[in-house]
Each structure stands twice: as structure tokens, then as C-alpha cells.
Write a structure and sequence with these properties.
Oligomer: single chain
CATH class of one domain: Mainly Alpha
CATH topology of one domain: Recoverin, domain 1
Largest sheet: 2 strands, antiparallel
Order of helices and strands: HEHEHHEHEHEHEHH
Shape: elongated
Length: 271
């Protein structure tokens, strides 16, 4: 393999045959193998017989010359939205989008009222009304607490509500994440497993390390290591908001921020 520090995706293993592997892949307490390989770069992958289980392993590598090894992980980052090109004539799809925008604004005005802002309960109503139309999602809808969290994460002026622009941004994100969720919910169960969640996070433009993937599983998965649509969206809303918050505090772009206790508590307690 070529030298890489990034987490390897499923495609890598589909198109690259293993150079050595255990002869019998069976469910035993202990499996040990010894291999002799020519000098090269290799990725070594311990695994359990059943998925989503943890186990200890010992790996010894003997080499004539000094060799280096490290865990393959991603840099922690999020893709920035690309700037839209101007000057082109609107396509049919763009015109449909404009009509959808007008309908969307009318619906928002009916829900929000004179102040043109919506709270958590109103957000829950509008999201669940839309989700009901997507029978293939097989979800019971968003919990009120989930919508409170979404409001807090999208609320840029600290009013406890979100305006039309904030709601539009949230809704556009949810639509794109919904497509990703449906892509990985291949059995139409209404959930995706923790391994599929890694690929879904990657498809959404987030690059995380193994520790963060484990945290997501502990926080959002059920006892069977599955993540439902509500938890999936809440996870992505938080990821998106936390990356935006970090970039806002990271004035010099060095990847390090400094917060006082008030800023820290405001950022964590409200979200």
C-alpha cells in the first residue's frame, strides 16, 4: 500500500488483496499466526469474529532494519462549503428550487408568526410533518429535546429561537444528511450500524479519528450499536455546529483556541 495516515475506506479492501491472513477464520478464544513478508509497507488489521466487539491483541514485528508503525487515522477536519459560481443562466432545477424556496418561506411564515422566528416545539412540528411524508425513513420523529438542541446549535443571536435564514440552513443540511442516511440504511430498518456511521460521517464531509468515532457510538447508538434517524441528524447538527464554532474562535487558523470559563460554559451548556 502507499504510505497513508488516513483511515482506510471499504473500497481499499475491495480492490486490494491481502498479502497474508489467518488460515481459518473461526470463533475461538485465541488465534495466532506467524508470517514472513518481503520488505514493503503494510497495513495490519486485527479483527473479531463478531462485529462491534472489543478484544486485546499482541502484535510483534521483527525486521532487519528499523521500522516505523503508527495507527492509521484521519486528520480532524470538516469540508468547507464551496463558493457558488455566478453569471450562469438558471437551470430548470434552479427554477424548481426557487419555487420551493417561496413555498418554504410561506410555510415558515405560517408557523413562525409575526416575529418570524420559531422555537423548539414549532421546529419539532414542522420537521415531523415533513418526515411523516417519507415513509421509507421508518422513524417515530424528532424528540423535543433533539429540537431544543438543534435550536441551540443554530441560534446565532442567542434568542432561543431561529430565524428564516437559520432554519433554511438547517433544513438544507437535514435534506443532504437524509440522503446519506437512506444510502446506508440498505435494509430499510430505519437505523444504520456504527460501522456504516463512519462512512456516513465521511460522506458528509467530516474527517474524524477513531476516538471520536467511538464517542459518537457511545453517545448516539443503542444497545445493539444501531443509530436511528433522529440520533443521526442530531449527531450531524452538533458536528456541523461545533466545527463552525471552533473556526469562529480560531482567529489565526492555527488549530488551537483559547476560551475563558464563561465562553466554555456558554458553548457547552446551551448546546
Amino acid at each position: 500500500m502507499h504510505s497513508t495516515k488516513h483511515h482506510l475506506q471499504k473500497d481499499f479492501f475491495l480492490y486490494n488483496a491481502s498479502k497474508a491472513r489467518s488460515k481459518t477464520y473461526i470463533n475461538m478464544r485465541e488465534i495466532s499466526e506467524r508470517f514472513r513478508l518481503p520488505p514493503n509497507e503494510y497495513v495490519i488489521i486485527p479483527s473479531t469474529y463478531e462485529p462491534h466487539q472489543e478484544g486485546e491483541f499482541i502484535l510483534r514485528v521483527f525486521s532487519e532494519k528499523r521500522s516505523l508503525s503508527e495507527e492509521a487515522e484521519n486528520m480532524i477536519e470538516a469540508e468547507r462549503p464551496s463558493k457558488k459560481k455566478k453569471g450562469k443562466r438558471p437551470s430548470a432545477k434552479a427554477r424548481e428550487s426557487s419555487e420551493e424556496e417561496n413555498q418554504f418561506r410561506n410555510i415558515f411564515q405560517q408557523i413562525a408568526g409575526d416575529d418570524m422566528e420559531i422555537n423548539a416545539e414549532e421546529l419539532r412540528n414542522v420537521l415531523n410533518n415533513v418526515v411523516k411524508k417519507h415513509k421509507d425513513l421508518k422513524t417515530e420523529g424528532f424528540e423535543l429535546e433533539s429540537c431544543r438542541s438543534m435550536i441551540a446549535l443554530m441560534d446565532t443571536d442567542g434568542s432561543g429561537k431561529i430565524n428564516f435564514d437559520e432554519f433554511r440552513h438547517l433544513w438544507d443540511k437535514i435534506k443532504s444528511w437524509q440522503k446519506i442516511f437512506k444510502r446506508y440504511d440498505t435494509d430499510h430498518s430505519g437505523t444504520i450500524n456504527s460501522y456504516e456511521m463512519r462512512n456516513a460521517v465521511n460522506d458528509a464531509g467530516f474527517r474524524l479519528n477513531n476516538q471520536l468515532y467511538d464517542i459518537i457510538t457511545m453517545r448516539y447508538a443503542d444497545k445493539n450499536m444501531n443509530i436511528d434517524f433522529d440520533s443521526f441528524i442530531c449527531c450531524f447538527v452538533r458536528l456541523d455546529a461545533m466545527f463552525r464554532a471552533f473556526h469562529a474562535f480560531d482567529k489565526d487558523g492555527d488549530g488551537i483556541i483559547k476560551l475563558n470559563v464563561l465562553e466554555w460554559l456558554q458553548l457547552t451548556m446551551y448546546a
